[in-house]
Amino acid sequence: MAAPDLLYLSSADVEGLAIEAKDVNEAVERAFRAKGEGRTWTRPELAIHLSGGRTYYAKAAVMTGYGACKWHAHIPGNEQYGLADLNPLIVLTEGVTGLAVAIMDARWISGVRTASFTALAAKYLAKAGAESLGFIACGRQARAHLAALRAQFPVRRVLCHSRKEATTRRFADEVAAQGLEARVAPPRDVVAGSDIVVSSTPLDVQMVPFLDADWVKPGGFVAAIDLGYSWRRESLERMDRVVTDDMEQNGPGGPVALNCDPTRYDADLGELAAGLKAGRAGAHERNAFVSSGFGLGDLAAAVLVYERARAMGAGRVLPR
Amino acid sequence: MKLGKEILYLSDADVLACALAPGAVRGAVEAMFLAKANGEAVMKPKLGLHTKETLFLAMVGGMERAGFAGMKWVGVANTIRHGNQPHISGHVVVNDFTTGMPLAVIDARWITGARTAAITAVAAKHLARKDSASIGFVACGVQGRANLEALADLFPVKRVTGYSRRRETAEAFAAWARGRGFEARAVGTAEEAVKDHDIVVTSVPVVPKPQPTLDASWLAPGSFAAAVDLGFSWKGETLTQLDRVVTDDLDQAVTEKLTYPKPYHGEVSGLVAGKTPGRQSAAERTGLVFAGIGLADVAVGAAVYEAARAKGIGHVLGL
Fold first, then answer.
1. Does this model's pTM top 0.80?
2. pLDDT greater than 70 at residue B53
3. What is residue A202's predicted lDDT score, i.e. its pLDDT?
4. Is the separation of the CB atoms in A160 and A189 below 8 Å?
5. Domain that holds residue B191
6. Which chain B residues have a beta carbon less than 8 Å from that of A11?
7. CA-to-CA distance for A87 and A10, rounded, in angstroms?
8. Environment class of A238 (CB within 10 Å of its CB; exposed 0-12, middle 13-18, buried 19+)
9. Are A256 and A249 in contact (CB under 8 A)?
10. Is residue B83 one of the residues assigned to a domain?
11. Interchain CB distance below 8 Å, A50 and B42
12. Which regions of chain A carry the CATH code 3.40.50.720?
């Protein structure tokens, strides 16, 4: 048996595959269901914390057929060098032989997989037929979330807020161009007026919680992609049901500190996807997903990208 | 190459073409350990994921002053492989420490062998006798060869003995060593490769349920034993007879469950920085029990990257 090619996929190669949000949602859901059923191998992320909020992350996971590790730094202030804050790479490996099959730029994956986590959590925790979305921060994550959530809910209205007026305006215009009703609003109105609220405030700003989950309307759902740090902690903990990505990583004794009591989580994504823990039980429940990201989602998305690239003949074959 | 826009890819052949000498690898690892001792290096114990067929490892570290960070991701296959593909395969990603941008993705095969042997060599500088002239090897694979090359660069090595579970592996190793000018022979028992040698290197593949067979009482006075196999080939309690035992990282020694049951005398970093005493007499028996740290992969990966840039080797890829 000949070894498979080693494939390199640049950012343009990955984006050129034009993978739809619903496909990523499905791949991520399958992976978390497999986790809940004990068919994956995962460990909490490795994080090297440096001064000034600089951090290096390795996020690794293995499932049937493949293993992967995503590696990147997050360096607030890279703007001064004309560089992005992060540029993750993923090395994807065959499950049984342990042989690497692909190296890929993981910027696109990092955006969409996070949105797929929210879509998965929302499937179990948001109200069916959610029509209105609220965005706190209007960058890459907001765009990815809009696509991931539209793949699953009959979205009609979007409220948005971010620190920079121009950023918010540009995002609202993009949303309107997609045929949705879009409005710029103050944070409290965004939170109170939306069925699903997504906060993705960059963590490089000195974070003073400025959102209160008590503002969320009955039946509402919050996805705090910013580790929960834009929210007043106690207000998040008061929600009816609070879930997170992975209990071993974010729960009691885990290495990742989210802005929520680690003993508060009712379930993690694997438990929800496998039906081991209950989701929404009533129309008036107010629920929250407090998220750090997790390597299994990167693996699931990387496998989707790799298999699609192989089928389409995309990328560059590297010598081993 | 433009930072944040391009990276360098180095295949196994590219890495070999960089032709880093044992002294250069040792120098890179030594500088890393000095940085570690001075609190200028950061790392985490390795992350391992064990499936039935494969062990996956992620190893990370960085050195702010040297300017590099990095990660190694490897798969270790128990048995099933594609044709002649290696037992351990994977890549080292090297990053610019300050901006975090990736600089290079490098095939990990050669680096894994070379950096492990360099850890042995750096420790041996402080723990083996200067006149060490004989080395016994238990297991004669990639690590056996890499360790012989690294140690022969430091010591007046004449006599080499190899033992392997498969006799033909030991014979092939001995023939390879004779081709490099050593008096080398294959032996039929591990005890023969341990007894009566100045340095002993054990590198038995780490398996889920190891069977320790080696007894430290076999070690000659004045010898140094390097357990590249996390110590799993040694009966752990017999290692406590040794006068001095160090490891490469005290935190990882716990998470990797190395077999040495007592507190270590220190880290290799301490030896390099002069904070941990090395060999104190010609009669002492000393040891190194370790699992290999990601910082060593980063240090050697960065040296390979710099050599490749200087020589124009490798493939530039757009991010």
1. yes
2. yes
3. 86
4. no
5. 128-292
6. 319
7. 11
8. middle
9. yes
10. yes
11. yes
12. 117-293
Q: Which residue has the higher pLDDT, B43 or A96?
A: B43
Residue B293 has pLDDT above 70, yes or no: yes
Q: CA quadruple A184, A189, A195, A199: dihedral positive or negative?
A: positive
| Structure token pair of residue B314 | 């490798």
The encoded tokens of residue A240 equal 């009816």
Residues of chain A with Cβ-Cβ distance to B64 below 8 Å are 50
Tell me if B237 sits within 8 A of B215, measured CB to CB.
no
Nearest to A72 among B12, B77, B100 (CB): B100
Same domain, B281 and B302: no
A77 or A106: which carries more pLDDT confidence? A106
**Residue in B13, B58, B315 nearest the CB of A58:** B58
Instruction: Kindly state the average pLDDT of the residues B242-247.
Output: 98
How many domains, in total, are found in chain B? 2
| Contact at CB, A103 and B82, closer than 8 angstroms | no
- What CATH number did the domain enclosing B43 receive? 3.30.1780.10
- Per-residue pLDDT band at B81 (split at 50, 70, 90): low
Higher-pLDDT residue of A90 and A79 is: A90
- A3 pLDDT band, cuts 50/70/90, is confident
| CATH code that applies to domain A6-109+296-318 | 3.30.1780.10
Average pLDDT over residues B100-107: 98
Highest CATH level, class, for A117-293: alpha beta
CB contact under 8 A, B81 and A97: yes
Indicate whether B117 belongs to any domain: no
How many Cα atoms sit within 13 Å of B186 on the Cβ side? 16
Nearest to A320 among B11, B75, B93 (CB): B11
- Find out whether A303 and A65 touch, Cβ atoms under 8 Å: yes
Q: Assess if residue B1 is contained within a domain.
A: no
Distance CA B200, CA B219 (A): 8
Cα–Cα distances (Å) from A88 to A107, A109, A243, in that order, read 6, 9, 26
Nearest CA in chain A to B98: A75
pLDDT value for A14: 98
C-alpha span between A28 and B193 (Å, rounded)? 52
What does pLDDT average to over chain A? Answer: 96
What's the token pair of residue B310? 């200087």
Average of pLDDT values for A154-165?
96
Q: What residues in B contact A105, CB-CB < 8 Å?
A: 319
Domain check: are B103 and B155 in the same one? no
CA-nearest of A307, A245, A304, A316 to A59 is A245
How many Å lie between the alpha carbon of B56 and the closest alpha carbon of chain A?
A: 7
Same domain, B138 and B96: no
- Per residue in B232-266, is it b (16+ CB within 10 Å) or e — as a string? bbbebebbeebebbbbbbeebbeebebbbeeebbb
Q: Say whether both B16 and B83 belong to one domain.
A: yes
Q: Give residue A207's pLDDT.
A: 76
